[in-house]
Design goal:
Layout: H1 4-10, H2 12-20, E1 22-26, H3 32-41, E2 46-51, H4 73-80, E3 85-88, H5 93-98, E4 106-109, H6 114-124, E5 128-131, E6 144-147, H7 155-166, E7 174-177, H8 191-210
Parallel strand pairs: 1-2, 1-4, 2-3, 4-5, 5-7
Antiparallel strand pairs: 6-7
């Protein structure tokens, strides 16, 4: 049976919770695609993925599905993960303002745009798990899980904290981040870290669901 070992691990009651949960993943690149894979294989059956990108050759070092160069990411991933719902939509401030997050039990933010991440946090912090910077690093031992207010050593986290403070927003939400010092100046990346961040996000999602 496909999920037999998941049932053994979680028990019937908690596994049913996983199957019933509704999860939205914002961005399915190097982090989001691994979060998707993990949740799908763990028995979550109602997953919606949102992205507006197409696969590029440079994605092939870290993104699931990226052998399909030139194809729309969400459409390709839907063929790899049958049953997943897709939204081929650019994430911008207007989209965040208009989108209804209420139907979802959890929102996973694996988006790239800082302003969008901040607005998503303001709108659905209670059910948010946010992935922060994972490029320019290769040491998975440095990955941490904490409140946004307890983050350290991550430039993106610092920027988000500062902008939230300016907006007088003091609510709590969970983030996965790495304080590892940047190992390059450009957009270098390693799937060891981007994938591990996505898998850590999945683990935190499972814990929240079965709690």
């Amino acid at each position: 049976m496909r999920f037999e070992r998941c049932r053994m691990l979680f028990g019937d009651a908690d596994f049913e919770k996983l199957q019933r949960s509704k999860i939205l993943i914002l961005g399915v690149g190097g982090v989001g695609s691994y979060a998707l894979d993990c949740l799908y294989r763990s028995g979550v059956s109602d997953i919606t993925i949102l992205d507006f990108d197409i696969f590029d050759e440079t994605n092939q070092n870290r993104q699931i599905g990226s052998e399909a160069v030139g194809e729309v990411k969400v459409e390709k991933l839907q063929t790899l993960y049958p049953g997943v719902k897709i939204i081929n939509q650019r994430m911008d401030m207007a989209w965040v303002a208009a989108f209804d997050f209420d139907p979802y039990d959890l929102v996973i933010d694996a988006a790239d745009t800082t302003k969008v991440k901040i607005e998503v946090a303001k709108k659905c912090y209670k059910k948010l798990i946010m992935a922060l910077g994972s490029a320019k690093r290769y040491d998975t031992n440095k990955i941490e899980v904490a409140s946004i207010w307890k983050t350290h050593g991550d430039a993106l986290a610092r920027k988000i904290r500062n902008e939230l403070k300016k907006a007088k927003f003091d609510r709590n939400f969970l983030v996965v981040f790495s304080p590892e010092e940047d190992k390059c100046k450009e957009k270098g990346s390693c799937v060891a870290v981007t994938g591990a961040v996505g898998l850590t996000v999945c683990s935190e999602a499972i814990k929240k669901i079965i709690k």
